[in-house]
């Protein structure tokens, strides 16, 4: 083979970017093979990053040394923290982005990394010898040798697009599908399936009557995704909210006999938590309307993304239905919505490193593993890239536990539970979500990123110094008291019951409506140099306030994690023969042999493995 690289990455989407950048930064020569370099990081669906739980993933990617957060910050036109009315465990950052600028920023990032080479082409054939990947051949006949291969093909594997009765092949509007990879892996007895996703129509901003909609502005001040980005100094672009009604639904029902979903042309399963508008009309027949979010696709573009109106109905039906929505009476539809059907590989065929069990050196990341969303894909790409490098070095794999990160929850769920429908991350999937907040991702994960060589020394040292300040201020808060004469005038102004004796600062901060910053500015405290320094740093104050207010819950979760850790450290030999354990249930034995868990803890989370199966396994291993 003419070209040789340590690692080849197939696909220039969100997973491919993270995999390629991480592997190159860790010292490997990397080939990023993509059909169109100008489409690097292209936002196939909505022009936004983050959202509920997805924002947690982006901040974790950033804390580990990934680049999605930086690219999002560089191309954002609006920032918003979701769920502020709830507890800090579910606060989730989100950005609205300039779709074209996001791709440009992503390509600039990829091109800036030494050792990372972009190759234009479509991989058509995988080369495998003795169950180990050796390279690929493109549709143009170019042969590329590699020691590890990371497939991040998104929705392009044998992709088919549908709008009404019209069907075209492709993985994204105007782009051809990827063929050959599925066919190669089928020869190695991989299981494969088909999934569906979709996208809404795009409309012209000039054709909207925004006075009939509700404005949705960004946060002031905005908060960036990346821990390395400054506070954004941009003019934020608003989004707008409107709503369908019964007239909309009635028109859409007229097209159901031409819907590829309802006529059986699409047989695969779509995302449960992001259904098409026609699916909503059927599943929620009692609802008289559904919210739509009109999201500009950029700062200087006329294109608007109609979030909430994903559809594969005929184009004329989509347009007629849109024109019943407030603010859209004279709307011009620039492009109809469509559905995409594509191949995926059920992820029980993977190790927790995202390496396939059947072929050494072959990693799968992103939507090919059955996930939905840019953020889930990027998280997998980063972990696959890191582990591909560690595998070539002969070092221990990098596996995040469920108790450490949402990324750990994501991959643990995929491998242990597999999926028959597109997997989407939610805060409710994380048992320890009060500890896995988006605001402390740097404190949880930067030590890993620094150790791996993905976080610069100065960034890590700044985080370490902030950690020292947090610890110092937490100690002050829990040990320092103030007299009633100082506290009571402040408490009366909140209002909150007065105190009759000296009271610890922590007990006061834990009261409802009390802000740590206000307490720490009271007489007798503001002159303390450690406190004065901390009050100037919003990140330090935020961490101290959250950890003080939720101290009891946090301590309880730490105790739960200790039990979890012990189960995770009870390892199962890699080639353990489950057939020898005759007391296991038939289903339990089948699932254990299929997934081959690394530990008792992982075994306990496999769907179909009962608690009695786990107990039997523990006794057998103990013997």
Give descriptors for this structure.
single chain; 623 residues; alpha+beta; Elongation Factor Tu (Ef-tu), domain 3; Arc Repressor Mutant, subunit A; DNA polymerase, domain 1; 7-stranded mixed β-sheet; 6-stranded antiparallel β-sheet; 21 helices; 36% helix; 18% strand; globular
Structure, described:
- With 623 residues, this protein is an alpha+beta fold.
- Among the domains are: 138 residues, Elongation Factor Tu (Ef-tu), domain 3 (Beta Barrel), CATH 2.40.30; 98 residues, Arc Repressor Mutant, subunit A (Orthogonal Bundle), CATH 1.10.10.1800; 54 residues, DNA polymerase, domain 1 (Orthogonal Bundle).
- Helix content is 36%, strand content 18%.
- The strands form five sheets. Strands 1, 2, 6, 7, 8, 9 and 20 form a seven-stranded mixed beta sheet that branches.
- Helix 3 packs across helix 4, helix 11 runs antiparallel to helix 12 and helix 12 crosses helix 17.
- The protein starts with a strand and ends with a helix.
> What is the fold-level CATH name, i.e. the topology of the domain at 202-339?
Elongation Factor Tu (Ef-tu), domain 3
The chain-level mean pLDDT equals: 93
Instruction: Please report the number of helical segments.
Output: 21
Helical/strand content category: alpha+beta
Give the strand tally.
22
Strand content: 15-25%
Helix percent band: 25-40%
Q: Biggest sheet, open or closed, and with what strands and sense?
A: 7 strands, mixed
Roughly how many Å is the radius of gyration?
Answer: 26 Å
CATH architectural category of the domain at 202-339: Beta Barrel
Mass-distribution shape:
globular
Determine and state the CATH class of the domain at 202-339: Mainly Beta
Ends distance: 51 Å
* Low-confidence region ranges: none
């Amino acid at each position: 083979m003419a070209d040789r690289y340590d690692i080849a990455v197939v696909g220039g989407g969100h997973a491919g970017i993270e995999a390629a950048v991480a592997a190159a930064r860790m010292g490997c020569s990397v080939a990023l093979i993509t059909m169109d370099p100008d489409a690097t990081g292209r936002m196939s669906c909505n022009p936004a990053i983050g959202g509920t739980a997805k924002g947690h993933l982006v901040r974790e990617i950033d804390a580990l040394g990934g680049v999605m957060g930086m690219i999002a910050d560089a191309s954002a036109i609006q920032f918003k923290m979701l769920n502020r009315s709830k507890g800090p465990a579910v606060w989730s950052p989100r950005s609205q982005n300039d779709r074209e600028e996001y791709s440009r920023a992503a390509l600039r990032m990829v091109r800036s990394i030494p050792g990372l080479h972009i190759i234009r082409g479509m991989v058509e054939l995988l080369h495998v010898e003795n169950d180990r990947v050796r390279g690929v051949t493109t549709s143009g006949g170019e042969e590329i040798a590699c020691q590890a291969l990371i497939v991040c093909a998104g929705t392009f594997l044998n992709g088919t697009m549908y709008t009404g009765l019209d069907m075209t092949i492709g993985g994204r509007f105007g782009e051809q599908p990827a063929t050959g990879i599925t066919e190669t892996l089928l020869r190695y007895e991989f299981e494969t399936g088909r999934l569906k996703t979709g996208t809404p129509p795009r409309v012209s901003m000039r054709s909207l009557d925004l006075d009939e909609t509700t404005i949705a502005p960004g946060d002031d001040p905005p908060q960036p995704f990346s821990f390395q980005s400054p506070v954004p100094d941009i003019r934020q672009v608003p989004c707008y909210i409107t709503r369908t009604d019964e007239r909309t639904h009635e028109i859409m029902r007229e097209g159901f006999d031409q819907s590829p979903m309802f006529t059986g042309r699409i047989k695969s399963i779509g995302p449960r938590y992001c259904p098409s508008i026609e699916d909503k009309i059927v599943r929620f027949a009692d609802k008289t309307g559904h919210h739509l979010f009109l999201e500009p696709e950029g700062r200087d573009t006329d294109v608007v993304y109609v979030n909430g109106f994903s559809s594969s109905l005929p184009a004329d039906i989509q347009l007629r239905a849109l024109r019943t929505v407030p603010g859209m009476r004279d709307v011009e539809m620039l492009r109809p919505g469509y559905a995409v059907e594509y191949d995926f590989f059920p992820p029980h065929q993977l190790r927790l490193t995202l390496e396939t069990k059947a072929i050494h050196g072959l990693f799968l990341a992103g939507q090919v593993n059955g996930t939905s969303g840019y953020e889930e894909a990027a998280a997998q790409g980063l972990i696959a890239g890191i582990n591909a490098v560690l595998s070539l070095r002969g070092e221990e794999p990098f596996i995040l536990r469920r108790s450490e990160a949402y990324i750990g929850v994501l991959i643990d769920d995929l491998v242990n539970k597999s999926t028959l429908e597109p997997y989407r991350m939610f805060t409710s999937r994380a048992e320890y979500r009060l500890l896995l907040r988006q605001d402390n991702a740097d404190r949880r994960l930067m030590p890993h990123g620094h150790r791996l060589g993905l976080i610069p020394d100065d960034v890590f040292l700044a985080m370490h110094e902030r950690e020292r300040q947090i610890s110092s201020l937490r100690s002050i808060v829990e040990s320092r008291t103030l007299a009633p004469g100082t506290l009571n005038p402040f408490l009366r102004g909140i209002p909150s019951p007065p105190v009759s004796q000296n009271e610890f600062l922590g007990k006061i901060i834990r009261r409802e409506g009390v802000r740590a910053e206000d307490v720490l500015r009271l007489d007798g405290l503001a002159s303390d140099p450690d406190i004065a320094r901390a009050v100037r740093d919003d990140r330090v104050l935020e961490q101290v306030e959250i950890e003080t207010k939720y101290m009891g819950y946090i301590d309880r979760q730490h105790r739960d994690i200790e039990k979890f850790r012990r189960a995770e450290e009870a390892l199962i030999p890699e080639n353990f023969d489950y057939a020898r354990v005759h007391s296991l249930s038939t289903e339990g034995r089948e699932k254990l042999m299929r997934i081959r868990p690394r530990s008792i803890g992982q075994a306990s989370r496999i769907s179909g493995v009962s608690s009695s199966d786990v107990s039997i396994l523990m006794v057998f291993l103990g013997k």
